[in-house]
Amino acid sequence: MSINPLDAIEPELVPQVSNLTLDQHRKFLSGQGETTSKPLSTESFLYKVIYTIPPTLLKKKETDTIKMVLLETYSIYKAYTNNQESFSNRISQEDVRRLIRNIRWVASRLEEYREPVLYDIIAGFRELDLLMNQFRNSSSLFSTDVSSDLKQFNEAGS
């Protein structure tokens, strides 16, 4: 899928998540998702998203997209730090590209409100955009070592 050059001006929302995120969502729904009782710093991005956005300020589509983006980034973080082997089987570079586009869509929509309470949150989404681009461009992230599979295949054919 090629990236639309107009996304630089008007990002497009793609309301879809990776299989990795669907797995994480199912864990949370079943009560098996990891949570923490560690308090959030009032300066943290997540705290600001949860506690500083007035509940009636945003439209449902924007609120749902913020939740989707946060769950997707959390899922990537958990999978990458806990199980890198299965990581690339459940998420693709295209999934990360889509996530970046959705992050940009959220930031763009929040900017339209011109609300001072959203400025730090917009900056947080911009930083998340940069971070996910670095993540996507990681040289070894999505390349899987298949040498042992090739060796087994070649030995089976002999």
Outline of this structure?
By secondary structure, this protein is mainly α. 62% of the residues lie in helices and 0% in strands.
Describe this structure as you would to a colleague.
The protein has 158 residues and is an all-alpha fold. It has one domain. Helix content is 62%, strand content 0%. The protein has 7 helices and no strands. The chain has helices at residues 19-29, 45-51, 60-82, 84-90, 93-113, 119-136, 147-157. Helix 1 packs across helix 3 (60-82), helix 3 (60-82) runs antiparallel to helix 5 and helix 5 packs antiparallel against helix 6. The longest helix has 23 residues, at 60-82. The radius of gyration is 18 Å and the shape is globular. It starts with 18 loop residues before the first helix and ends with a helix. The model has no long low-confidence stretch (mean pLDDT 83).
List keywords for this structure.
158 residues; 7 helices
Oligomer: single chain
Q: What is the tally of beta strands?
A: 0
Strand content: under 5%
User: In whole angstroms, how far apart are the ends?
Assistant: 39 Å
What is the number of independent domains?
1
Series of secondary-structure elements, N-terminal to C-terminal: HHHHHHH
Mean pLDDT: 83
Total of DSSP H or I helical runs spanning 4+ residues: 7
Helix content range: 55-70%
- Taking all Cα atoms into account, the compactness measure Rg is 18 Å
Give the biggest sheet.
Answer: none
**Overall 3D form:** globular
Low-confidence stretches: none
Structural class: mainly alpha
